[in-house]
Amino acid sequence: MSGQSDLVERIMRLKGEKKAVILAHNYQRPEVQDVADFVGDSLELSLCAAQTDAKIIVFCGVNFMAETAAILNPDKMVLIPDANALCPLASMLPADLVRLYRRKYPGAKIVLYINSLAEAKAYCDAVCTSANAAEIVNRVDSETVLFGPDANLASYAQTKSGKKIIPIPQYGFCPVHKLFSKDDIIRLKKVYPDAEVMAHPECNPDVWEIADFVGSTSRMYREAMASKASKFIVATEVGLLHRLRKDRRGAVFIPAYEEAICVNMRLHTLEKIYLCLRDEKYEVKLPEKIALRAREPIEFMLKTRETQR
Ligand code: 13P
Ligand code: SF4
Protein backbone atom coordinates (compact mmCIF):
# COMPACT_ATOMS: atom_id res chain seq x y z
CA MET A 1 0.00 0.00 0.00
CA SER A 2 1.45 3.37 -1.01
CA GLY A 3 1.61 6.37 1.32
CA GLN A 4 -1.02 9.08 0.87
CA SER A 5 1.30 11.78 -0.52
CA ASP A 6 2.89 9.29 -2.91
CA LEU A 7 -0.55 8.29 -4.17
CA VAL A 8 -1.61 11.91 -4.60
CA GLU A 9 1.55 12.56 -6.65
CA ARG A 10 0.88 9.57 -8.89
CA ILE A 11 -2.76 10.53 -9.37
CA MET A 12 -1.76 14.07 -10.35
CA ARG A 13 0.83 12.78 -12.83
CA LEU A 14 -1.58 10.33 -14.48
CA LYS A 15 -4.33 12.92 -14.55
CA GLY A 16 -2.10 15.31 -16.55
CA GLU A 17 -0.75 12.61 -18.88
CA LYS A 18 -4.23 11.29 -19.71
CA LYS A 19 -6.02 14.67 -19.81
CA ALA A 20 -8.41 13.47 -17.15
CA VAL A 21 -10.59 15.43 -14.76
CA ILE A 22 -11.66 14.21 -11.31
CA LEU A 23 -15.17 15.19 -10.20
CA ALA A 24 -16.18 14.51 -6.59
CA HIS A 25 -19.48 14.80 -4.78
CA ASN A 26 -19.66 16.79 -1.52
CA TYR A 27 -20.03 13.50 0.43
CA GLN A 28 -16.68 12.04 -0.65
CA ARG A 29 -13.93 11.25 1.84
CA PRO A 30 -11.85 14.37 2.68
CA GLU A 31 -8.74 13.08 0.87
CA VAL A 32 -10.81 12.35 -2.25
CA GLN A 33 -12.33 15.84 -2.19
CA ASP A 34 -8.84 17.29 -1.85
CA VAL A 35 -7.52 15.52 -4.94
CA ALA A 36 -10.52 16.44 -7.12
CA ASP A 37 -10.61 19.19 -9.77
CA PHE A 38 -14.16 19.99 -8.82
CA VAL A 39 -16.29 19.21 -5.74
CA GLY A 40 -20.01 19.89 -5.80
CA ASP A 41 -23.64 18.78 -5.61
CA SER A 42 -25.42 16.68 -8.23
CA LEU A 43 -26.48 19.69 -10.29
CA GLU A 44 -23.02 21.25 -10.36
CA LEU A 45 -21.40 17.91 -11.21
CA SER A 46 -23.84 17.40 -14.11
CA LEU A 47 -23.06 20.89 -15.40
CA CYS A 48 -19.34 20.25 -15.03
CA ALA A 49 -19.63 16.93 -16.87
CA ALA A 50 -21.60 18.62 -19.66
CA GLN A 51 -18.96 21.32 -20.12
CA THR A 52 -15.60 19.63 -19.61
CA ASP A 53 -13.14 19.24 -22.47
CA ALA A 54 -11.18 16.54 -20.64
CA LYS A 55 -10.77 13.20 -22.42
CA ILE A 56 -11.47 11.11 -19.33
CA ILE A 57 -13.89 11.89 -16.50
CA VAL A 58 -13.17 10.12 -13.21
CA PHE A 59 -16.39 10.31 -11.26
CA CYS A 60 -16.22 9.97 -7.48
CA GLY A 61 -19.86 9.68 -6.55
CA VAL A 62 -22.59 7.06 -6.75
CA ASN A 63 -23.25 5.41 -10.08
CA PHE A 64 -26.32 7.40 -11.19
CA MET A 65 -24.07 10.48 -11.11
CA ALA A 66 -21.41 8.79 -13.26
CA GLU A 67 -24.15 7.50 -15.57
CA THR A 68 -25.43 11.07 -16.02
CA ALA A 69 -21.90 12.14 -16.97
CA ALA A 70 -21.71 9.26 -19.47
CA ILE A 71 -25.12 10.13 -20.97
CA LEU A 72 -23.99 13.73 -21.47
CA ASN A 73 -20.62 12.70 -22.90
CA PRO A 74 -21.11 9.77 -25.29
CA ASP A 75 -17.67 10.38 -26.86
CA LYS A 76 -15.71 10.55 -23.60
CA MET A 77 -14.50 7.87 -21.28
CA VAL A 78 -16.30 8.06 -17.92
CA LEU A 79 -14.70 6.01 -15.15
CA ILE A 80 -15.85 5.21 -11.62
CA PRO A 81 -13.17 4.07 -9.13
CA ASP A 82 -15.47 1.56 -7.41
CA ALA A 83 -18.31 0.14 -9.50
CA ASN A 84 -20.21 -0.96 -6.37
CA ALA A 85 -21.05 2.63 -5.42
CA LEU A 86 -24.82 2.36 -5.87
CA CYS A 87 -27.58 4.55 -4.41
CA PRO A 88 -30.27 2.49 -2.63
CA LEU A 89 -32.79 5.29 -3.14
CA ALA A 90 -32.33 5.12 -6.93
CA SER A 91 -33.02 1.37 -6.88
CA MET A 92 -36.45 1.97 -5.27
CA LEU A 93 -37.94 2.98 -8.63
CA PRO A 94 -37.49 0.39 -11.39
CA ALA A 95 -38.25 1.50 -14.96
CA ASP A 96 -41.27 -0.84 -15.13
CA LEU A 97 -42.88 1.02 -12.24
CA VAL A 98 -42.44 4.36 -14.06
CA ARG A 99 -44.17 2.88 -17.12
CA LEU A 100 -46.96 1.51 -14.95
CA TYR A 101 -47.59 4.94 -13.38
CA ARG A 102 -47.50 6.53 -16.83
CA ARG A 103 -50.37 4.27 -17.87
CA LYS A 104 -52.27 4.92 -14.62
CA TYR A 105 -52.03 8.74 -14.91
CA PRO A 106 -51.88 9.46 -18.65
CA GLY A 107 -52.30 13.25 -18.26
CA ALA A 108 -49.56 13.75 -15.66
CA LYS A 109 -45.94 14.58 -16.43
CA ILE A 110 -43.20 12.59 -14.70
CA VAL A 111 -40.30 14.33 -12.96
CA LEU A 112 -37.52 12.09 -11.67
CA TYR A 113 -34.93 13.03 -9.13
CA ILE A 114 -31.44 12.61 -10.58
CA ASN A 115 -31.00 9.90 -7.91
CA SER A 116 -32.73 7.38 -10.18
CA LEU A 117 -31.70 4.62 -12.56
CA ALA A 118 -30.87 5.57 -16.17
CA GLU A 119 -33.50 3.04 -17.33
CA ALA A 120 -36.12 4.89 -15.25
CA LYS A 121 -34.99 8.32 -16.52
CA ALA A 122 -35.52 7.05 -20.05
CA TYR A 123 -39.30 7.05 -19.38
CA CYS A 124 -39.66 10.43 -17.63
CA ASP A 125 -40.34 13.96 -18.89
CA ALA A 126 -37.81 15.87 -16.81
CA VAL A 127 -34.99 15.22 -14.36
CA CYS A 128 -34.32 17.43 -11.34
CA THR A 129 -31.89 17.60 -8.44
CA SER A 130 -32.46 18.71 -4.86
CA ALA A 131 -31.28 22.17 -5.96
CA ASN A 132 -34.08 22.72 -8.47
CA ALA A 133 -36.94 20.25 -7.80
CA ALA A 134 -39.73 22.85 -7.40
CA GLU A 135 -38.57 24.89 -10.39
CA ILE A 136 -38.54 21.83 -12.66
CA VAL A 137 -41.96 20.71 -11.36
CA ASN A 138 -43.27 24.19 -12.24
CA ARG A 139 -41.76 24.02 -15.71
CA VAL A 140 -43.43 20.78 -16.84
CA ASP A 141 -46.72 21.15 -18.60
CA SER A 142 -49.25 19.54 -16.21
CA GLU A 143 -50.89 20.48 -12.91
CA THR A 144 -50.47 16.96 -11.51
CA VAL A 145 -46.92 15.68 -11.45
CA LEU A 146 -45.64 12.20 -10.69
CA PHE A 147 -42.38 12.56 -8.77
CA GLY A 148 -39.90 9.92 -7.59
CA PRO A 149 -38.17 8.14 -6.11
CA ASP A 150 -37.71 10.31 -2.97
CA ALA A 151 -41.04 10.94 -1.21
CA ASN A 152 -39.59 13.60 1.12
CA LEU A 153 -38.24 15.63 -1.79
CA ALA A 154 -41.64 15.16 -3.45
CA SER A 155 -43.33 16.75 -0.38
CA TYR A 156 -40.79 19.56 -0.36
CA ALA A 157 -41.34 20.25 -4.08
CA GLN A 158 -45.10 20.24 -3.45
CA THR A 159 -44.86 22.88 -0.71
CA LYS A 160 -42.62 25.06 -2.89
CA SER A 161 -44.37 24.63 -6.24
CA GLY A 162 -48.04 24.52 -5.27
CA LYS A 163 -48.68 21.74 -7.83
CA LYS A 164 -50.29 18.41 -6.92
CA ILE A 165 -47.51 15.87 -6.63
CA ILE A 166 -47.98 12.11 -6.52
CA PRO A 167 -44.88 10.38 -5.12
CA ILE A 168 -43.71 7.30 -7.05
CA PRO A 169 -43.24 4.92 -5.29
CA GLN A 170 -45.27 6.09 -2.31
CA TYR A 171 -42.51 5.69 0.29
CA GLY A 172 -39.17 6.02 -1.55
CA PHE A 173 -36.48 7.23 0.85
CA CYS A 174 -32.76 7.76 1.41
CA PRO A 175 -31.62 5.51 4.29
CA VAL A 176 -29.03 8.09 5.34
CA HIS A 177 -31.37 11.09 5.52
CA LYS A 178 -33.97 8.98 7.37
CA LEU A 179 -31.53 8.97 10.30
CA PHE A 180 -32.15 12.60 11.17
CA SER A 181 -34.85 13.35 13.71
CA LYS A 182 -36.66 16.47 14.82
CA ASP A 183 -36.00 15.55 18.49
CA ASP A 184 -32.22 15.32 17.97
CA ILE A 185 -32.23 18.74 16.34
CA ILE A 186 -34.33 20.27 19.13
CA ARG A 187 -31.87 18.79 21.67
CA LEU A 188 -28.91 20.26 19.76
CA LYS A 189 -30.65 23.62 19.52
CA LYS A 190 -30.82 23.69 23.34
CA VAL A 191 -27.03 23.25 23.50
CA TYR A 192 -26.34 25.68 20.62
CA PRO A 193 -29.28 28.16 20.73
CA ASP A 194 -27.70 30.59 18.26
CA ALA A 195 -26.88 27.91 15.66
CA GLU A 196 -28.46 28.03 12.20
CA VAL A 197 -30.08 24.71 11.24
CA MET A 198 -29.48 23.57 7.65
CA ALA A 199 -31.24 20.50 6.26
CA HIS A 200 -31.32 18.54 3.03
CA PRO A 201 -34.82 18.10 1.53
CA GLU A 202 -34.33 14.30 1.58
CA CYS A 203 -34.82 14.53 5.38
CA ASN A 204 -38.29 13.86 6.79
CA PRO A 205 -40.62 16.90 6.49
CA ASP A 206 -40.68 17.46 10.29
CA VAL A 207 -36.90 17.96 10.08
CA TRP A 208 -36.87 20.44 7.19
CA GLU A 209 -39.91 22.24 8.62
CA ILE A 210 -37.86 23.32 11.66
CA ALA A 211 -34.71 24.12 9.65
CA ASP A 212 -33.65 27.71 9.00
CA PHE A 213 -32.32 26.74 5.59
CA VAL A 214 -33.26 23.86 3.28
CA GLY A 215 -31.28 23.03 0.16
CA SER A 216 -28.94 20.82 -1.80
CA THR A 217 -25.48 20.15 -0.41
CA SER A 218 -23.89 22.99 -2.38
CA ARG A 219 -26.69 25.38 -1.53
CA MET A 220 -26.02 24.61 2.14
CA TYR A 221 -22.35 25.25 1.48
CA ARG A 222 -23.07 28.65 -0.09
CA GLU A 223 -25.47 29.51 2.74
CA ALA A 224 -22.78 28.70 5.33
CA MET A 225 -20.21 30.83 3.49
CA ALA A 226 -22.59 33.83 3.30
CA SER A 227 -24.49 33.58 6.60
CA LYS A 228 -23.84 35.88 9.57
CA ALA A 229 -24.22 32.89 11.91
CA SER A 230 -21.04 31.29 13.23
CA LYS A 231 -22.55 27.97 14.34
CA PHE A 232 -24.46 25.56 12.13
CA ILE A 233 -26.34 22.32 12.81
CA VAL A 234 -26.07 20.33 9.60
CA ALA A 235 -28.65 17.68 8.67
CA THR A 236 -27.06 15.87 5.75
CA GLU A 237 -24.36 13.26 5.15
CA VAL A 238 -21.32 14.19 7.25
CA GLY A 239 -18.95 14.32 4.24
CA LEU A 240 -20.11 17.89 3.56
CA LEU A 241 -18.58 19.01 6.87
CA HIS A 242 -15.06 18.68 5.47
CA ARG A 243 -15.65 21.39 2.86
CA LEU A 244 -17.56 23.58 5.31
CA ARG A 245 -14.84 23.42 7.98
CA LYS A 246 -12.04 23.90 5.48
CA ASP A 247 -13.59 27.00 3.89
CA ARG A 248 -15.05 28.70 7.00
CA ARG A 249 -12.43 28.07 9.58
CA GLY A 250 -13.81 30.35 12.29
CA ALA A 251 -17.25 28.72 12.29
CA VAL A 252 -18.52 25.67 14.19
CA PHE A 253 -20.29 22.92 12.23
CA ILE A 254 -22.26 20.40 14.25
CA PRO A 255 -23.52 17.22 12.57
CA ALA A 256 -27.22 16.70 13.33
CA TYR A 257 -26.39 12.99 13.49
CA GLU A 258 -22.75 11.92 13.56
CA GLU A 259 -23.31 8.52 11.99
CA ALA A 260 -25.11 9.81 8.92
CA ILE A 261 -22.66 8.21 6.51
CA CYS A 262 -23.42 7.05 2.98
CA VAL A 263 -21.28 3.92 2.76
CA ASN A 264 -21.66 3.84 -1.01
CA MET A 265 -20.18 7.31 -1.41
CA ARG A 266 -17.27 6.28 0.82
CA LEU A 267 -16.22 3.36 -1.37
CA HIS A 268 -13.91 5.53 -3.46
CA THR A 269 -10.40 5.84 -2.03
CA LEU A 270 -7.14 7.37 -3.27
CA GLU A 271 -5.81 3.89 -4.01
CA LYS A 272 -8.87 3.10 -6.18
CA ILE A 273 -8.65 6.47 -7.97
CA TYR A 274 -5.04 5.74 -8.81
CA LEU A 275 -5.87 2.25 -10.16
CA CYS A 276 -8.86 3.68 -12.02
CA LEU A 277 -6.63 6.16 -13.86
CA ARG A 278 -3.82 3.68 -14.42
CA ASP A 279 -5.96 0.82 -15.75
CA GLU A 280 -8.82 2.95 -17.15
CA LYS A 281 -11.45 1.05 -15.22
CA TYR A 282 -14.34 0.86 -14.43
CA GLU A 283 -15.86 2.38 -17.52
CA VAL A 284 -19.49 3.48 -17.17
CA LYS A 285 -21.34 2.36 -20.29
CA LEU A 286 -25.07 2.36 -20.99
CA PRO A 287 -27.06 0.77 -23.80
CA GLU A 288 -27.30 3.42 -26.55
CA LYS A 289 -31.10 3.39 -26.65
CA ILE A 290 -31.38 4.08 -22.89
CA ALA A 291 -28.68 6.76 -22.99
CA LEU A 292 -30.41 8.56 -25.87
CA ARG A 293 -33.82 8.48 -24.20
CA ALA A 294 -32.48 9.54 -20.79
CA ARG A 295 -30.52 12.45 -22.27
CA GLU A 296 -33.59 14.48 -23.20
CA PRO A 297 -35.05 14.87 -19.66
CA ILE A 298 -31.57 15.62 -18.29
CA GLU A 299 -31.07 18.33 -20.90
CA PHE A 300 -34.50 19.73 -20.08
CA MET A 301 -33.16 20.33 -16.57
CA LEU A 302 -29.78 21.72 -17.66
CA LYS A 303 -31.47 24.27 -19.94
CA THR A 304 -33.18 25.85 -16.93
CA ARG A 305 -30.05 26.13 -14.84
CA GLU A 306 -29.80 29.93 -14.88
CA THR A 307 -32.85 30.19 -12.64
CA GLN A 308 -31.77 27.46 -10.24
CA ARG A 309 -28.40 28.40 -8.79
P1 13P B 1 -27.12 16.91 -3.65
O1 13P B 1 -27.63 17.02 -5.03
O2 13P B 1 -27.72 17.89 -2.73
O3 13P B 1 -25.65 16.97 -3.65
O4 13P B 1 -27.57 15.51 -3.04
C1 13P B 1 -27.28 14.29 -3.61
C2 13P B 1 -27.59 13.20 -2.71
O5 13P B 1 -27.35 12.07 -3.01
C3 13P B 1 -28.20 13.51 -1.43
O6 13P B 1 -28.29 12.38 -0.67
FE1 SF4 C 1 -28.28 7.81 -2.24
FE2 SF4 C 1 -28.82 8.68 0.23
FE3 SF4 C 1 -26.33 8.03 -0.42
FE4 SF4 C 1 -27.48 10.26 -1.41
S1 SF4 C 1 -26.97 9.81 0.74
S2 SF4 C 1 -26.28 8.76 -2.55
S3 SF4 C 1 -29.58 9.54 -1.69
S4 SF4 C 1 -28.09 6.66 -0.32
How would you characterize this protein structure?
This protein is of the alpha/beta class. The protein has 14 helices and twelve strands. It has helices at residues 4-17, 30-35, 42-51, 63-72, 95-104, 118-121, 133-139, 151-161, 182-191, 205-209, 217-226, 240-247, 270-279, 288-303; strands at residues 20-25, 38-40, 56-60, 77-79, 109-113, 126-128, 144-148, 164-167, 196-199, 213-214, 231-235, 252-255. Strands 2-1-3-4 form a four-stranded parallel sheet, sandwiched between helices. Helix 1 (4-17) packs parallel to helix 13 (270-279), helix 3 (42-51) runs parallel beside helix 4 (63-72) and helix 7 (133-139) packs across helix 8 (151-161). The N and C termini lie far apart (41 Å). The model has no long low-confidence stretch (mean pLDDT 96). Bound molecules: 1,3-dihydroxyacetonephosphate (13P) and iron/sulfur cluster. 1,3-dihydroxyacetonephosphate (13P) is lined by residues 26, 41-42, 115, 129-130, 174, 202, 216-217.
